[in-house]
Amino acid sequence: MILSPKYGFMRPDFVIPGNYDVTFESPDALLGPELKQQVERQGLGKYANVTVLGGTEYVQIVKDSFSSSKSKLEAPFVGPRFGTQMGLIKKFLRDESSQGRRK
């Protein structure tokens, strides 16, 4: 899933109809209660683990949105510096690629 300030939790195949300039600080941004409803409506709380690939602000928004679920949130990018984050991404992609070859 992708988290958008304007659309909330979106599937990767969701087509955004046009450009938009909305951040989570914007008055047009979806707020906690709306995002929490999306988690419930879309059944996202059924997942045991949810990995948030974003900074501290996004992690807090996702935590609040999933607060009624039993999902365990993981946030590997909170804390490390940018170079370390890039290393984590490369390692993740290598691991996923090698798992795909084994299937």
Question: What does this protein look like?
Answer:
With 103 residues, this protein is α+β, with helices and mostly antiparallel strands. Helix 1 (32-41) crosses helix 2 (56-65). The chain has one domain. The chain has a two-stranded antiparallel sheet. It is 40% helix and 12% strand. The mean pLDDT is 89. The protein contains three helices and four strands, in the order ββαβαβα. Strand 1 (2-4) and strand 2 (8-10) form a beta hairpin. The chain starts with a strand and ends with a helix. The protein has helices at residues 32-41, 56-65, 82-102, and strands at residues 2-4, 8-10, 49-51, 72-74.
Topology:
Layout: E1 2-4, E2 8-10, H1 32-41, E3 49-51, H2 56-65, E4 72-74, H3 82-102
Parallel strand pairs: 3-4
Antiparallel strand pairs: 1-2
Helix pairs in contact: 1-2
Protein name: DUF6884 domain-containing protein
Pfam families: DUF6884
Domain DUF6884: 2-90
